[in-house]
Recover the amino acids of this structure.
């Protein structure tokens, strides 16, 4: 009995020491803060920028951590990260954000199942696995598609930064409705001419909701700029756009 106790106990102590070593000294993942939140008005375009705020080089274990809002959550699947992590950023964003001009490549895409509005623009708490939470009330989060919310609840131009230190800013503001008459793609009035075609060609294939400059190229106002619009455009070519109906889809 006495002999048995002496042989088992050291083994338990050894396992315990190994577990402790792996969990603390070797690598962690709990000093990441929710640093910046961005959303457009309908919550279809969002990003969460985390930042390692402790200057700690080995906080590589982001994988398995849970991002949660009051109503939704998902698990971070990216990691372990490559050290050093000190003061780095980690960008989690919607695929719709990743497609915008000026967007740095997200480190992880927010799963479609928690969209739109992973976090509620009207007030929410965004939490990184209980290690850090950014809580904001109604009217605090900008939704103009330009500005974002910082951890100190100040706002400013969105500044997404990823783990590779690529940063940028996006314009997710809603495109204005086309202010021109039908077929006057580039504005300025006059007949529908090659200048209008040049703008149309530039906008072809672009989502008009992401570009105010291309709003007039979606001639049938169905949210895409494609051959159907070209057919309408071709039919108007040479005509005086000032006499056209103001809205091609009317
Ligand atoms: Ca930022
Ligand atoms: Ca024109
Ligand atoms: Ca169209």
């Amino acid at each position: 009995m006495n002999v048995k106790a002496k042989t088992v106990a050291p083994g338990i102590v050894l396992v315990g020491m190994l577990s402790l070593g792996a969990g603390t000294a070797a690598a962690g993942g709990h000093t990441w803060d929710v640093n910046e939140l961005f959303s457009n008005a309908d919550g279809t375009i969002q990003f969460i920028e985390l930042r390692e705020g402790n200057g700690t080089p080995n906080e590589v274990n982001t994988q398995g951590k849970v991002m949660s809002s009051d109503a939704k959550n998902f698990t971070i699947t990216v990691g372990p990260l490559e050290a050093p992590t000190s003061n780095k950023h980690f960008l989690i964003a919607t695929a719709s954000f990743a497609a915008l001009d000026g967007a740095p490549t997200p480190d992880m895409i927010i799963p479609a199942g928690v969209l739109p509005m992973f976090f509620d623009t009207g007030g929410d708490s965004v939490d990184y696995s209980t290690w850090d939470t950014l809580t904001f009330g109604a009217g605090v989060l900008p939704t103009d598609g330009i500005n974002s919310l910082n951890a100190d609840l100040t706002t400013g131009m969105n500044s997404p930064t990823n783990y590779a230190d690529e940063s940028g800013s996006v314009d997710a503001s809603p495109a204005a409705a086309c202010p021109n008459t039908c077929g006057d793609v580039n504005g300025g009035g006059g007949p529908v001419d090659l200048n209008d075609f040049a703008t149309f060609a530039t906008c072809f294939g672009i989502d008009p909701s992401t570009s105010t400059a291309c709003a007039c190229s979606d001639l049938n106002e169905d949210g895409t700029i494609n051959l159907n619009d070209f057919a309408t455009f071709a039919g108007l070519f040479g005509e005086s756009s000032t006499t056209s109906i103001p809205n091609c889809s009317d």
Summary: The pocket of calcium ion (ligand 2) is lined by residues 184, 186, 188, 190, 195-196 (CB under 6 Å).
